[in-house]
Sequence to fold (210 residues):
Amino acid sequence: MEKFLTLNSKITFLAMFSALLLITASCEKADMGRNGMPDNPGMKSAMAAPAPCNQTIAEIVVASTKAKEPQFILLLAALEYTGLTGVFTGGGQYTVFAPTDQAFLDLVAALPLGVVEGDSPFEKIDNLLGEGTVANVLLYHVTEGRRAANSVVPKTGLRTIETLLGATFTVDKAAKITAVGNTTNIIAPNISASNGIIHVIDAIILPIVP
Fold:
């Protein structure tokens, strides 16, 4: 863990990351947009917990990749690469802060992966920053339990979120996340699943000290 949190010379790109739909009904009743996520975006609407729907988190991620404007193709690829897809197929309840495809593309573009061996960008990231880096980053985007926006975004001050990685990040009243290594924003909260909730964010949050 200490090695992962102190990769100073290889994560100066973190400075580039400054800033991943509100839905108060179950997803089976929601109108699905072109990007495979429920319509009705906006942070000013009610943020109460939505009812569980029939699809698991994994199924929602997969369905989104088949939409006209997919959002989670690279998230799905990262989950499959790390073998973490099964965590979100049922069983326990989880809250996932899901980066968009653009967030992954920004990360990949910021790294000197062209000179690193590997068959995929994720393998190259592990080879560059250390084995298990991609899995640790994904675990930093997940917390246990079903946490709707009203239990993630505070009315005042900051709220600390403990992740499956063991490291924490904070969320402010504007839905801005401050992580160990960078910041991001919740841009589409409360996508309901049968086994948790997805909040879409616009940059990958990293548990690394720049």
